[in-house]
Design brief:
With 232 residues, the chain is an alpha/beta fold. It has 7 helices and 10 strands. It is elongated and about 55 Å long.
Length: 232
């Protein structure tokens, strides 16, 4: 039965036809049901769900509960699942991210450049919140995401790599030369507060920019960094 989403729930929702299709194509084993509005004329998603043996239910009530103010006619319900960052890949590490839109956009960038896994240091915004899932346009279903209670816990598991925090005190990121024999962790702080000074013990860098703005949005900064890593 559909109910308003809570972070403590074992299930979540993919809002929209495109996001639901990503769920079916990449995490079909986690999909529970596809809800379709009586107003919908979209058949490609329901056809895909039925081909996978996933129930399809026509229900206006589901949309009144989960997406009452949005132009949304398809919802995918799925079980939350675990995924893990890989030691043989670079990592984007987000320390205490607090905005669903930013996190979803970053997930999309991680998928687009496909050179790193995503690590989240808690406390953090919920990576399975329907707002995050929708902002990612379903990219969350195609990337590895691992969460840790602290940065120390993360380092204890993945310590053999170059830690590169993005801080105003850092050197010019444009001059960074990536060593193909090493793995890197690109570390970004909270949208409002950035990283604590303790991270300066590593090898901090900064993205150079004009003085017309004081800083880049978190998701923009991560995208710039990922692109440079991707083409290196």
């Amino acid at each position: 039965m559909v109910k308003k989403y809570k972070k403590t729930d074992d299930i979540s929702y993919a809002l929209g036809a495109t996001v639901t299709m990503e769920l079916l194509n990449r995490r079909a084993d986690s999909a529970r049901c596809v809800y379709v509005s009586p107003k919908s004329d979209v058949t490609v998603v329901t056809d895909r769900a039925r081909a996978l043996g996933i129930p399809v239910t026509e229900s206006e009530k589901a949309f009144n509960i989960l997406s009452p103010k949005e132009n949304c006619y398809v919802i995918g319900e799925f079980n939350k699942y675990d995924s893990h960052a890989q030691s043989d890949r670079h990592h984007v590490v987000l320390v205490n991210p607090s905005n669903s839109g930013n996190l979803g956009t970053i997930m999309r960038a991680v998928a687009a450049f496909d050179c790193a896994d995503l690590v989240i240091i808690k406390p953090a915004v919920d990576c399975f919140d329907p707002k995050t899932v929708r902002a990612s346009m379903g990219a969350v279903f195609g990337i590895n995401v691992e969460q840790f209670d602290s940065f120390e816990e993360y380092i204890n598991k993945f310590g053999d790599r170059v830690v590169m925090p993005f801080m105003l005190c850092g050197g010019a990121f444009s001059k960074t030369e990536f060593d193909a024999s090493k793995k890197y962790s690109l570390v970004f702080g909270n949208e409002a507060t950035g990283l604590p000074e303790s991270y300066a013990q590593y090898s901090p860098v900064r993205i150079e920019q004009s003085e017309k703005v004081d800083s880049l949005n978190l998701s923009a900064a991560v995208s710039v960094a990922l692109y440079k890593m991707y083409i290196s």
